[in-house]
Sequence to fold (340 residues):
Amino acid sequence: MPEKMAFAVAGYGAWGRFHAKSIAGAADGRLAAIVAPSEVNARAAKADYPDAVIYRRWEEAIADPAIEAVAVAAPNHLHAPIAIAALNAGKHVLLEKPMANTLEDCDRIVASAKASKAQITIGLQCRLSPQWGRIRALIEEGAIGAPRHVHVSLFRHPYRQGSAGWRYDKSRVGSWILEEPVHFFDLALWYLAASGRPVEVRALGAGEPGMQATISTLMHFPDGATAAVNQILGGFEHHQTVEVVGSKGAIRSTWSAATARSLKSATTLRLKRAGAESFEELPVGRSGEVYELARQAQAAIEGFRAGKSLVSAEEGRAAVAVCLAAEASAAMAGKTIVVD
Fold:
Protein backbone atom coordinates (compact mmCIF):
# COMPACT_ATOMS: atom_id res chain seq x y z
CA MET A 1 0.00 0.00 0.00
CA PRO A 2 1.53 3.37 -1.04
CA GLU A 3 2.40 5.95 1.56
CA LYS A 4 0.10 8.94 1.94
CA MET A 5 0.88 11.76 -0.48
CA ALA A 6 2.66 14.66 1.25
CA PHE A 7 0.93 17.97 0.54
CA ALA A 8 1.72 21.59 1.16
CA VAL A 9 -1.23 23.99 1.29
CA ALA A 10 -0.31 27.45 0.02
CA GLY A 11 -2.60 29.88 1.83
CA TYR A 12 -4.29 29.65 5.21
CA GLY A 13 -7.23 32.03 4.94
CA ALA A 14 -10.85 30.92 5.36
CA TRP A 15 -10.82 28.58 2.35
CA GLY A 16 -7.19 27.57 2.80
CA ARG A 17 -8.17 26.12 6.17
CA PHE A 18 -10.85 23.99 4.53
CA HIS A 19 -8.31 22.78 1.98
CA ALA A 20 -5.94 21.86 4.80
CA LYS A 21 -8.69 20.03 6.64
CA SER A 22 -9.73 18.18 3.47
CA ILE A 23 -6.20 17.01 2.73
CA ALA A 24 -5.51 16.04 6.34
CA GLY A 25 -8.71 14.02 6.31
CA ALA A 26 -8.15 12.35 2.95
CA ALA A 27 -7.54 8.62 3.10
CA ASP A 28 -4.40 8.92 0.95
CA GLY A 29 -3.27 12.42 1.88
CA ARG A 30 -0.91 13.86 4.49
CA LEU A 31 -0.73 17.53 5.36
CA ALA A 32 3.04 18.00 5.56
CA ALA A 33 3.34 21.77 5.25
CA ILE A 34 1.32 24.99 5.26
CA VAL A 35 2.27 28.33 3.75
CA ALA A 36 0.91 31.16 5.92
CA PRO A 37 2.47 34.55 5.09
CA SER A 38 0.93 36.46 7.99
CA GLU A 39 2.01 36.00 11.59
CA VAL A 40 -1.59 35.51 12.73
CA ASN A 41 -2.29 32.77 10.20
CA ALA A 42 1.08 31.13 10.79
CA ARG A 43 0.32 30.83 14.51
CA ALA A 44 -3.15 29.49 13.74
CA ALA A 45 -1.74 26.92 11.30
CA LYS A 46 0.78 25.67 13.84
CA ALA A 47 -1.89 25.41 16.53
CA ASP A 48 -4.21 23.50 14.19
CA TYR A 49 -1.55 21.20 12.72
CA PRO A 50 1.44 20.98 15.07
CA ASP A 51 3.10 18.24 12.99
CA ALA A 52 3.08 20.30 9.80
CA VAL A 53 5.99 22.52 8.77
CA ILE A 54 4.86 26.15 8.62
CA TYR A 55 6.44 28.25 5.89
CA ARG A 56 6.00 31.99 5.44
CA ARG A 57 6.94 31.96 1.74
CA TRP A 58 5.51 29.61 -0.87
CA GLU A 59 8.92 29.28 -2.55
CA GLU A 60 10.20 27.49 0.57
CA ALA A 61 7.43 24.89 0.42
CA ILE A 62 8.09 24.15 -3.24
CA ALA A 63 11.81 23.77 -2.51
CA ASP A 64 11.08 21.19 0.21
CA PRO A 65 12.00 17.77 -1.27
CA ALA A 66 9.53 16.03 1.03
CA ILE A 67 6.55 17.75 -0.63
CA GLU A 68 4.92 15.76 -3.42
CA ALA A 69 1.93 17.98 -4.15
CA VAL A 70 0.85 21.58 -3.61
CA ALA A 71 -2.73 22.77 -3.04
CA VAL A 72 -2.89 26.42 -4.06
CA ALA A 73 -5.41 28.36 -1.98
CA ALA A 74 -3.69 31.75 -2.08
CA PRO A 75 -5.21 34.97 -3.49
CA ASN A 76 -5.97 34.78 -7.20
CA HIS A 77 -2.99 36.77 -8.48
CA LEU A 78 -0.63 34.20 -6.94
CA HIS A 79 -2.22 31.17 -8.60
CA ALA A 80 -0.10 31.25 -11.75
CA PRO A 81 3.36 31.82 -10.22
CA ILE A 82 2.86 29.17 -7.53
CA ALA A 83 1.39 26.60 -9.93
CA ILE A 84 4.10 27.11 -12.54
CA ALA A 85 6.91 26.89 -9.99
CA ALA A 86 5.42 23.74 -8.46
CA LEU A 87 4.99 22.03 -11.84
CA ASN A 88 8.52 22.99 -12.85
CA ALA A 89 9.74 21.38 -9.61
CA GLY A 90 7.87 18.16 -10.41
CA LYS A 91 5.15 18.66 -7.78
CA HIS A 92 1.52 17.81 -8.47
CA VAL A 93 -0.80 20.81 -8.26
CA LEU A 94 -4.35 21.17 -7.00
CA LEU A 95 -5.07 24.72 -8.17
CA GLU A 96 -8.00 26.65 -6.74
CA LYS A 97 -10.23 28.50 -9.15
CA PRO A 98 -9.79 30.71 -11.03
CA MET A 99 -6.90 29.03 -12.78
CA ALA A 100 -5.36 32.49 -13.29
CA ASN A 101 -6.43 36.10 -13.79
CA THR A 102 -5.35 36.33 -17.44
CA LEU A 103 -5.35 34.04 -20.45
CA GLU A 104 -1.62 34.65 -20.82
CA ASP A 105 -1.05 33.17 -17.36
CA CYS A 106 -3.45 30.32 -18.14
CA ASP A 107 -1.39 29.52 -21.23
CA ARG A 108 1.82 29.57 -19.20
CA ILE A 109 0.28 27.06 -16.77
CA VAL A 110 -0.88 24.85 -19.64
CA ALA A 111 2.63 24.89 -21.10
CA SER A 112 4.22 24.06 -17.73
CA ALA A 113 1.76 21.21 -17.20
CA LYS A 114 2.61 19.70 -20.59
CA ALA A 115 6.32 19.92 -19.85
CA SER A 116 6.10 18.55 -16.31
CA LYS A 117 6.15 14.97 -15.13
CA ALA A 118 3.56 16.02 -12.53
CA GLN A 119 -0.18 16.46 -12.90
CA ILE A 120 -2.41 19.49 -12.37
CA THR A 121 -6.11 19.59 -11.61
CA ILE A 122 -8.15 22.79 -11.43
CA GLY A 123 -10.32 23.24 -8.35
CA LEU A 124 -13.72 23.44 -10.02
CA GLN A 125 -15.11 21.10 -7.40
CA CYS A 126 -18.80 21.65 -8.19
CA ARG A 127 -18.36 18.78 -10.64
CA LEU A 128 -17.92 16.44 -7.65
CA SER A 129 -21.17 17.51 -6.03
CA PRO A 130 -23.91 14.88 -5.63
CA GLN A 131 -26.20 17.71 -6.70
CA TRP A 132 -24.51 19.58 -9.57
CA GLY A 133 -22.61 16.47 -10.67
CA ARG A 134 -25.84 14.47 -10.66
CA ILE A 135 -27.24 16.88 -13.24
CA ARG A 136 -24.41 15.99 -15.60
CA ALA A 137 -25.09 12.28 -15.03
CA LEU A 138 -28.78 12.79 -15.85
CA ILE A 139 -27.84 14.60 -19.06
CA GLU A 140 -25.46 11.80 -20.04
CA GLU A 141 -28.12 9.13 -19.52
CA GLY A 142 -30.50 11.04 -21.81
CA ALA A 143 -33.05 11.88 -19.10
CA ILE A 144 -33.94 15.22 -20.74
CA GLY A 145 -32.83 14.62 -24.30
CA ALA A 146 -30.21 16.96 -25.72
CA PRO A 147 -29.49 19.90 -23.39
CA ARG A 148 -30.34 23.19 -25.09
CA HIS A 149 -30.17 25.82 -22.34
CA VAL A 150 -28.43 26.14 -18.97
CA HIS A 151 -29.29 28.82 -16.43
CA VAL A 152 -27.26 29.34 -13.25
CA SER A 153 -28.09 32.09 -10.76
CA LEU A 154 -26.58 33.11 -7.44
CA PHE A 155 -28.14 35.46 -4.87
CA ARG A 156 -25.80 36.02 -1.94
CA HIS A 157 -24.33 38.41 0.62
CA PRO A 158 -21.38 40.60 -0.45
CA TYR A 159 -17.93 39.03 -0.63
CA ARG A 160 -15.68 39.03 2.41
CA GLN A 161 -12.65 41.32 2.15
CA GLY A 162 -10.12 38.50 2.36
CA SER A 163 -6.66 38.82 3.90
CA ALA A 164 -5.41 42.44 3.55
CA GLY A 165 -8.53 43.18 1.46
CA TRP A 166 -7.33 41.24 -1.60
CA ARG A 167 -10.83 40.34 -2.77
CA TYR A 168 -11.64 44.05 -3.22
CA ASP A 169 -8.39 44.84 -5.02
CA LYS A 170 -8.77 44.27 -8.77
CA SER A 171 -5.03 43.83 -9.25
CA ARG A 172 -5.17 40.78 -6.98
CA VAL A 173 -8.66 39.31 -7.36
CA GLY A 174 -8.73 39.81 -11.14
CA SER A 175 -12.46 40.36 -11.10
CA TRP A 176 -15.52 39.29 -9.15
CA ILE A 177 -16.59 37.37 -12.26
CA LEU A 178 -13.50 35.20 -11.86
CA GLU A 179 -14.02 34.83 -8.12
CA GLU A 180 -17.26 32.80 -8.09
CA PRO A 181 -19.12 32.79 -11.43
CA VAL A 182 -16.16 30.86 -12.87
CA HIS A 183 -17.78 27.83 -11.20
CA PHE A 184 -21.05 28.53 -12.97
CA PHE A 185 -19.46 29.07 -16.37
CA ASP A 186 -17.63 25.78 -15.90
CA LEU A 187 -20.90 23.99 -15.10
CA ALA A 188 -22.53 25.47 -18.21
CA LEU A 189 -19.60 24.37 -20.38
CA TRP A 190 -19.67 20.92 -18.76
CA TYR A 191 -23.41 20.41 -19.20
CA LEU A 192 -23.29 21.67 -22.81
CA ALA A 193 -20.06 19.87 -23.72
CA ALA A 194 -21.75 18.27 -26.74
CA SER A 195 -22.43 21.77 -28.11
CA GLY A 196 -18.75 22.73 -28.21
CA ARG A 197 -17.26 25.86 -26.66
CA PRO A 198 -19.30 29.11 -26.66
CA VAL A 199 -18.56 31.41 -29.57
CA GLU A 200 -20.13 34.64 -28.31
CA VAL A 201 -20.76 36.22 -24.92
CA ARG A 202 -22.81 39.25 -23.91
CA ALA A 203 -23.02 40.65 -20.39
CA LEU A 204 -24.51 43.58 -18.48
CA GLY A 205 -23.50 44.60 -14.99
CA ALA A 206 -23.88 47.39 -12.46
CA GLY A 207 -20.80 48.87 -10.84
CA GLU A 208 -17.09 49.22 -11.51
CA PRO A 209 -15.98 47.08 -14.47
CA GLY A 210 -14.99 43.65 -13.24
CA MET A 211 -16.28 44.41 -9.74
CA GLN A 212 -20.01 44.52 -10.44
CA ALA A 213 -22.37 43.71 -7.59
CA THR A 214 -24.81 42.39 -10.19
CA ILE A 215 -24.03 40.85 -13.57
CA SER A 216 -26.00 38.88 -16.16
CA THR A 217 -24.26 36.94 -18.91
CA LEU A 218 -25.60 35.18 -22.00
CA MET A 219 -23.54 32.66 -23.98
CA HIS A 220 -24.17 31.36 -27.49
CA PHE A 221 -22.86 27.97 -28.64
CA PRO A 222 -22.06 26.79 -32.21
CA ASP A 223 -25.13 24.53 -32.46
CA GLY A 224 -27.60 27.13 -31.19
CA ALA A 225 -27.57 26.13 -27.52
CA THR A 226 -27.46 28.94 -24.97
CA ALA A 227 -26.50 29.49 -21.35
CA ALA A 228 -27.18 32.30 -18.89
CA VAL A 229 -25.28 33.08 -15.68
CA ASN A 230 -26.52 35.67 -13.18
CA GLN A 231 -24.88 36.81 -9.96
CA ILE A 232 -26.22 39.18 -7.29
CA LEU A 233 -23.78 40.17 -4.55
CA GLY A 234 -26.08 42.59 -2.75
CA GLY A 235 -28.34 39.94 -1.28
CA PHE A 236 -28.30 37.85 1.86
CA GLU A 237 -27.32 34.29 2.74
CA HIS A 238 -26.28 32.06 -0.19
CA HIS A 239 -28.86 30.82 -2.69
CA GLN A 240 -27.90 29.04 -5.92
CA THR A 241 -30.19 27.74 -8.65
CA VAL A 242 -29.30 25.59 -11.67
CA GLU A 243 -31.81 24.89 -14.44
CA VAL A 244 -31.21 22.83 -17.56
CA VAL A 245 -33.74 22.60 -20.37
CA GLY A 246 -33.39 19.73 -22.81
CA SER A 247 -35.13 18.77 -26.03
CA LYS A 248 -37.35 16.32 -24.11
CA GLY A 249 -37.30 17.33 -20.46
CA ALA A 250 -35.86 19.65 -17.82
CA ILE A 251 -33.98 19.78 -14.51
CA ARG A 252 -34.18 22.34 -11.72
CA SER A 253 -32.02 22.27 -8.58
CA THR A 254 -31.52 24.70 -5.68
CA TRP A 255 -29.08 25.09 -2.77
CA SER A 256 -29.69 27.50 0.11
CA ALA A 257 -27.73 28.12 3.31
CA ALA A 258 -26.41 30.91 5.50
CA THR A 259 -23.04 30.97 3.67
CA ALA A 260 -21.14 28.97 1.05
CA ARG A 261 -19.23 27.32 3.92
CA SER A 262 -22.35 26.08 5.70
CA LEU A 263 -22.53 22.39 6.52
CA LYS A 264 -26.33 22.39 6.61
CA SER A 265 -28.33 23.46 3.58
CA ALA A 266 -31.78 23.21 2.03
CA THR A 267 -31.54 21.47 -1.32
CA THR A 268 -33.89 20.39 -4.09
CA LEU A 269 -33.35 18.40 -7.28
CA ARG A 270 -36.34 18.07 -9.58
CA LEU A 271 -36.42 16.23 -12.87
CA LYS A 272 -39.04 16.14 -15.61
CA ARG A 273 -37.94 13.12 -17.58
CA ALA A 274 -38.38 12.69 -21.28
CA GLY A 275 -41.95 11.50 -21.85
CA ALA A 276 -43.10 12.18 -18.26
CA GLU A 277 -46.17 14.28 -17.55
CA SER A 278 -44.83 15.75 -14.30
CA PHE A 279 -41.56 16.20 -12.44
CA GLU A 280 -40.11 13.92 -9.78
CA GLU A 281 -38.14 14.80 -6.66
CA LEU A 282 -34.70 13.20 -6.56
CA PRO A 283 -32.70 12.69 -3.34
CA VAL A 284 -29.58 14.80 -2.81
CA GLY A 285 -26.65 13.68 -0.69
CA ARG A 286 -24.63 16.06 1.45
CA SER A 287 -24.00 18.96 -0.89
CA GLY A 288 -21.96 22.13 -0.45
CA GLU A 289 -18.46 23.44 -1.11
CA VAL A 290 -17.03 22.08 2.14
CA TYR A 291 -18.10 18.56 1.24
CA GLU A 292 -16.94 18.96 -2.36
CA LEU A 293 -13.49 20.06 -1.20
CA ALA A 294 -13.17 16.87 0.83
CA ARG A 295 -14.20 14.73 -2.14
CA GLN A 296 -11.85 16.69 -4.38
CA ALA A 297 -8.81 16.12 -2.12
CA GLN A 298 -9.05 12.34 -2.23
CA ALA A 299 -10.06 12.22 -5.91
CA ALA A 300 -7.16 14.51 -6.85
CA ILE A 301 -4.67 12.23 -5.09
CA GLU A 302 -6.06 9.20 -6.89
CA GLY A 303 -5.86 11.11 -10.16
CA PHE A 304 -2.29 12.25 -9.54
CA ARG A 305 -1.22 8.65 -8.93
CA ALA A 306 -3.03 7.48 -12.06
CA GLY A 307 -1.58 10.28 -14.20
CA LYS A 308 -4.96 11.95 -14.71
CA SER A 309 -6.56 15.31 -13.95
CA LEU A 310 -10.05 15.74 -12.50
CA VAL A 311 -10.36 19.04 -14.38
CA SER A 312 -7.63 19.70 -16.93
CA ALA A 313 -5.71 22.92 -17.36
CA GLU A 314 -7.38 23.32 -20.76
CA GLU A 315 -10.83 23.10 -19.14
CA GLY A 316 -9.79 25.60 -16.49
CA ARG A 317 -8.63 27.98 -19.21
CA ALA A 318 -11.94 27.66 -21.05
CA ALA A 319 -13.85 28.80 -17.96
CA VAL A 320 -11.50 31.76 -17.47
CA ALA A 321 -11.88 32.72 -21.15
CA VAL A 322 -15.66 33.00 -20.76
CA CYS A 323 -15.28 35.02 -17.55
CA LEU A 324 -12.95 37.49 -19.24
CA ALA A 325 -15.25 37.76 -22.26
CA ALA A 326 -18.15 38.53 -19.91
CA GLU A 327 -16.06 41.16 -18.12
CA ALA A 328 -15.15 42.79 -21.43
CA SER A 329 -18.75 42.79 -22.64
CA ALA A 330 -20.09 44.29 -19.42
CA ALA A 331 -17.47 47.05 -19.63
CA MET A 332 -18.84 47.91 -23.08
CA ALA A 333 -22.54 47.94 -22.14
CA GLY A 334 -23.32 44.47 -23.44
CA LYS A 335 -21.33 44.43 -26.66
CA THR A 336 -21.00 40.94 -28.13
CA ILE A 337 -17.55 39.49 -27.48
CA VAL A 338 -16.05 36.58 -29.41
CA VAL A 339 -14.60 34.07 -26.95
CA ASP A 340 -10.86 33.39 -27.20
